[in-house]
Amino acid sequence: MARALNQLREQMAEVADLQAASALLDWDHQTYMPPGAAEARAQQMATIDRLAHQQLTSDSIGELLQTAQSEVEGLDLDSNEARLVKVTQRDFDRERRIPSRWVSEFSQATALAHQIWQEARGTSDFSKFEPSLERIVGLRQEYASFFEPYESIYDPLFEAFEPGMKTAQIRAVFAELRPALVDLVQRIAERADRVDDSFLHGKFEDAPQWEFGLEVLQRMGYDFQRGRQDRSAHPFTTSFSNDDVRITTRVEGELLTSALFSSIHEGGHALYEQGVDPQLQRSPLAGGASLSLHESQSRLWENLVGRSRPFWRFFFPELKERFGQLRNVSLEDFYRAVNRVRPSLIRVDADEVTYNLHIMVRFELEQELLEGRVRVKDLPPAWNQKMNEYLGIVPPNDAQGILQDVHWSGGAIGYFPTYTLGNLISVEFYQSALRDCPQIWAEMEQGRFDSLLDWLRQHVHIFGRKFEPLELLRRATGQELSPQPYLSYLHEKFTEIYQL
Amino acid sequence: MARALNQLREQMAEVADLQAASALLDWDHQTYMPPGAAEARAQQMATIDRLAHQQLTSDSIGELLQTAQSEVEGLDLDSNEARLVKVTQRDFDRERRIPSRWVSEFSQATALAHQIWQEARGTSDFSKFEPSLERIVGLRQEYASFFEPYESIYDPLFEAFEPGMKTAQIRAVFAELRPALVDLVQRIAERADRVDDSFLHGKFEDAPQWEFGLEVLQRMGYDFQRGRQDRSAHPFTTSFSNDDVRITTRVEGELLTSALFSSIHEGGHALYEQGVDPQLQRSPLAGGASLSLHESQSRLWENLVGRSRPFWRFFFPELKERFGQLRNVSLEDFYRAVNRVRPSLIRVDADEVTYNLHIMVRFELEQELLEGRVRVKDLPPAWNQKMNEYLGIVPPNDAQGILQDVHWSGGAIGYFPTYTLGNLISVEFYQSALRDCPQIWAEMEQGRFDSLLDWLRQHVHIFGRKFEPLELLRRATGQELSPQPYLSYLHEKFTEIYQL
Fold this sequence. Notes:
Chain A is mainly alpha-helical. Chain A has helices at residues 3-31, 38-56, 59-71, 80-96, 100-123, 126-145, 154-161, 167-189, 206-220, 258-274, 291-305, 309-322, 331-337, 355-370, 379-391, 417-436, 440-444, 450-459, 469-477, 484-498; strands at 227-231, 237-241, 244-249.
């Protein structure tokens, strides 16, 4: 009995091993790889990715899936077995449309583009990155073509990140967010003088920032026996199994909290991956349910926890000990400073209110790129124009503009909206957790996160990829996706901070 | 024309990519991997190694080889094309005898054993490591059985490291070396008071050791754009392409020169891999010709260069600047100290004269293990007895005895004799290089190694795996493998140092 299911499991475990090897090649690429190795590495990644794709889409998997379908009939639809077949079928159906040749070309192109992007950003020279991006956009358009007919060319890309969701849903979310956010930003701008964050800017040493970040991660519950933090040009989280989930950060030293919030953000991703049911390992059910679910975790820890009063009640004295510059700063001033709202150039350092406007800029440009309404070479002025339109500022150079994010160099077009969805979902999760465990804030004031992490593990992490993102949201909170809880949270928080 | 050859090349390039991914999984395992990941990593390595083996031994490779044979007929037998077919055929014939099932079991067993060995060594508890070693010896005996009939069970293991060589050749070498070395050790022992190395022992800081090692590597010609040095429990060199050749060392701080000589040793390996003709990359001709050839490079740099007067004429003043403890030590005293001969416990720190006795202990035990004449559980007393017999000392514990080397935990049984062969070959190479380029020593006194490295590149490195080891030795030096040049070198050097 269940012979096909077991064979399916074994074959998919090998796919998982190949994917883990590919993830390690990429982690190494972004952390320790010597620069001369870029071409060889791109070939290695292309080969491994193609092999993983070939195995996943082989006829033998197709046949096993058919037999396994009948083997799981009658089982609880939410059982690991039934869900394994369902999710593998979904992945199989999607990946079968993509030729392995495309996978290998895409893998090689993006591995090469990463280094070029880094150089282009370093010299703020978009023209260096242009041919790589041209190639990637072309490959992504080709990718979309494998899924024709579609409602929007953005759909196939987005759905690969967000199973079961459509571009129209993001558009609806932004339509509701945009006026509310623009209004809030304006009202805050009139009271800008109420918050001062000058003491966060200056020269800050590397080592104490690094150590403070490690301490916060430890207290959050990140397990260093099954993970580690390194440095990279752009912070990221990667996972080679739920026993090896790694994060990176960058320490720049001009903004005191930049490395820290990046560590907390990636730590949120990592807690998710470390919390997946070990029984789901080496299977298509391992890992996060979707990118927006992932971002809901990272943004929850970064903002709802990391930019809250209870968090800093515990950690601010520790931070002060490390940085003499904060000697005369009060907890309240510090809390307000890390929540200062101001249109700015860099997405990852943006406050909670303007953050989604940065996403909107990217979401709109991505659609225009894919639809051919804007050409790659015309991106810098298009970017600057949209920044001006939504945020009222124009980047002085491309490094602080169009070149700031790693995503496109990695081929991740269609990723950005998941940050905004993640913001929305994070509030829904957090409010449910607070309802179920009112002690969360009191614990946090003592530097403990047990109840919060337990709640997230039980309601979100443990399920891995078993459920589609909105299904998981519903099961965890009883609610649908909606911008309203998020907007209420922002209004309440910033009305108080800025006395609006 | 040459269609089969081109297809062969492409398919073997994918095998090379898989092998590179496996090597990265292993490098990471030994450097940065969090401890909790050991089991998942073992599975990943098993899968990748099995896939590489399956691809290499597929029927399709067999068929391509047959056609390619005829395509290269008439070509120069030493051309890259003809040699590619020849070497791939050799690898194919060997690997076809090994079931992929064995490859995956071996890979998993050794990946798990590494961590267990490390713990066992940490607590000096052989019983912890015993079951792992039992398993590995069993797998190695099974490996040998795939090559029956054989003259010695050691042959198939040894030949995988040394194409074209037999155990009988090592025995003959040791039969010649043993009496000469034992005699030399005894004569030196009578004059032990002529060399003092007490100033090399003490407490030495980590950072200046690390930096000094990097400086020496840089001057040797190691290209940090295509490599890097990290830390690991046991130093090693690994290569993911000739554009990414990495070394590791350990800094322990009780013996001033331990980390340094380990860096120079691994640097010698790395120069070899970095110097292989780029045209051979991603092919079975990439990498070193054999382990003894590899050790000839590492031992040449470590001993013939790194323990020579011209080397220290340049570097000793630099070392003195970094370590105040050497203030009153003369260059001559330092030279003699790093060449002090004394039976000791740890192979990697052993002097040039006693070193091969350490190898003999291991070589004999390995044969007895494989032949079933000694059981794994009886290894510690057997080890101690042989140490007493050949070196006149007995380890106080297993960490400094049977557990000191990483090799067996990685399944590398049959590896140790290649160190001794490497010693022999290193002298033959070095003397040829000095004959061709008499300026080598003068350059070295200025911290330059150009002529030596050029000679090695042109006569050894560039050829990769094109030639069998003894064939390469003959081409480079016009000589056969012989212990005599090595023994003469030792006699001359140590007669002078100890005024024998």
